[in-house]
């Protein structure tokens, strides 16, 4: 702790966003950066608490006091080494993590001005790339089948592991297994790696060049990536496939592998396929043209920015339209920002649950619980009508095209038998004009059959939709389980 009085003398300073009139015309990252001097001052505010709750709150166990101190002292390389010792991809979490550590920061309890951990870790990582502190770490040896249990004889066949899904969980798992010396192949159904980092999060929050940079590094370190390969959990097989420009999957060849066949080639398989099934809204009129899942808009827009072309009929766009986003979470917010950049006429966001409390404290969820307070994102700042306690009754249309949505204001009353509150109608139904509806109501947790003992499931695929940082933590934990299993069963 280089400056024991910094938290008393220096206020929290966030980098903030680019001006609205500038950022809504492109998909460049909206978040700005502080100068090196300002960033060091922010790092100096960390109090190096005797009981660092930030360690406890972070799923990865990031050592924020340690790397903040190194940053304050100007040792950027040490700061990165400390950060990377727990976090494999801090350039991702430094941009999109909700910063659980900051909500647990003692300064947040003291004056609601926690240390800027998220921004600090992003700055540390970018400096590390810029200065060449980050170089490929090629494992000194590869684990062979005769040596996996510590035997003296060196076998000629490497221990091979397949990771199915190149999202944050799969990448974190593959990274750790590769560094342990295993031969790792990552299979991905899409044309590029990243999972929801690439196809769910807009470029204005995470530039995809950031993902590409890390994937190149992982390849240099020895991980093999195979794209356009689909893994189907429901019938326990995976098949080679090619993504068309429309996003549909066409079989590339007749070869089809059951899980049993795949296990002839791999000593262990890790399934990290995320939560591919979005929660639907089965209201009348759902079939109308203009009603889409949020990821249909978000993934297509990211592909367009990557150079992929779509026909007029395939294109999902908000240009010139009144847009209704159903769902009040981060995915809904991402739809709002994307709709503005596509040139929408207006955006309304509705949520069936009550409006969260405003302000830093949540009386219903006191610390150490996560405060369920009103969140206003950069996308909301760009313009959006937000409403809560709104139930969707029917999608309305003409000649097969969406024209509006009938909704009903509701209230929630306590359930005398306990459990979920009871929804009751309030007022009269109304119609919200809309030519485009985006369903952003979350994802369904996948169901898995019983797998052989050398098949593991991690990330959202195992736990249901959650945070990127939790997916990465799950990937690292699964890598430990795979390593222990292979050593115990060699």
Question: Would you spell out the secondary-structure blueprint of this structure?
Answer:
Blueprint: H1 6-9, H2 20-23, H3 36-44, H4 53-57, H5 64-72, H6 76-84, H7 90-96, H8 100-104, H9 106-111, H10 117-130, E1 160-164, H11 168-180, E2 183-187, H12 196-199, H13 208-220, E3 224-226, E4 229-232, E5 237-243, E6 249-258, H14 259-265, E7 268-271, E8 291-293, H15 294-305, E9 322-326, H16 330-342, E10 346-351, H17 378-381, E11 385-388, E12 390-398, E13 401-413, E14 422-425, E15 430-433, E16 436-439, E17 455-457, H18 460-463, H19 468-488
Parallel strand pairs: 1-2, 1-7, 2-3, 7-17, 8-16, 9-10, 9-16, 10-11
Antiparallel strand pairs: 4-5, 5-6, 12-13, 13-14, 13-15
Which terms summarize this structure?
490 residues, alpha/beta, five-stranded parallel β-sheet, 19 helices, 17 strands, 33% helix
């Amino acid at each position: 702790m280089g400056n024991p009085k910094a938290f008393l003398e220096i206020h929290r300073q966030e980098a903030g966003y680019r001006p609205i009139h500038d950022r809504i015309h492109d998909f460049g990252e909206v978040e700005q950066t502080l100068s090196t001097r300002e960033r060091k001052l922010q790092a100096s505010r960390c109090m190096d608490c005797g009981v660092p709750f930030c360690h406890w709150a972070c799923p990865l166990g990031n050592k924020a006091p340690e790397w903040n101190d190194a940053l304050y002292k100007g040792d950027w390389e040490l700061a990165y080494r400390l950060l990377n010792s727990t976090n494999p991809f801090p350039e991702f979490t430094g941009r999109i993590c909700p910063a659980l550590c900051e909500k647990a920061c003692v300064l947040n309890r003291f004056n609601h001005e926690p240390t800027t951990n998220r921004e600090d870790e992003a700055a540390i990582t970018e400096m590390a790339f810029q200065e060449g502190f980050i170089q490929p770490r090629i494992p000194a040896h590869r684990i062979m089948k005769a040596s996996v249990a510590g035997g003296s004889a060196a076998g000629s066949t490497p221990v091979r592991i397949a990771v199915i899904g190149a999202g944050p969980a799969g990448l974190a798992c593959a990274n750790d297994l590769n560094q342990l010396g295993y031969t790792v192949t990552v299979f991905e159904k899409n044309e590029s790696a990243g999972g929801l980092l690439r196809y769910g999060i807009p470029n204005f929050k995470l530039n995809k060049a950031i993902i590409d940079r890390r994937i190149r590094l992982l390849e240099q370190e020895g991980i093999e990536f195979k794209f356009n390969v689909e893994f189907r959990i429901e019938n326990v097989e995976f098949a080679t496939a090619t993504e068309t420009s429309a996003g549909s999957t066409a079989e590339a060849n007749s070869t089809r592998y059951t899980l049993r066949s795949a296990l002839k080639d791999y000593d262990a398989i890790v399934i990290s396929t995320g939560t591919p099934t979005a929660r639907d809204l089965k209201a009348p009129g759902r079939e109308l043209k203009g009603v889409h899942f949020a990821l249909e808009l978000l993934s297509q827009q990211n592909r367009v920015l990557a150079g992929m072309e779509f026909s007029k009929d395939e294109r999902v766009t908000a240009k010139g339209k009144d847009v209704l986003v159903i769902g009040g979470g981060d995915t809904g917010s991402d739809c709002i920002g994307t709709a503005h950049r596509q040139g929408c006429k207006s955006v309304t966001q509705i949520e069936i649950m009550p409006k969260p409390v405003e302000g830093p404290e949540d009386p219903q969820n006191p610390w150490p619980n996560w405060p369920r307070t009103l969140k206003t994102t950069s996308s909301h700042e760009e313009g959006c009508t937000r409403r809560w306690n709104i139930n969707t009754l029917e999608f309305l249309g003409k000649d097969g095209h969406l024209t509006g949505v009938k909704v009903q204001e509701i209230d929630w009353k306590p359930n005398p038998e306990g459990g979920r509150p009871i929804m009751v109608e309030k007022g009269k139904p109304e119609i919200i004009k809309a030519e485009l509806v985006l369903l952003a109501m979350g994802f369904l947790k996948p169901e898995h059959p019983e797998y052989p003992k050398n098949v593991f499931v991690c990330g959202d695929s195992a736990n249901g939709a959650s945070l990127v940082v939790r997916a990465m933590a799950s990937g690292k934990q699964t890598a430990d389980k795979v390593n222990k299993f292979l050593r115990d069963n060699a």
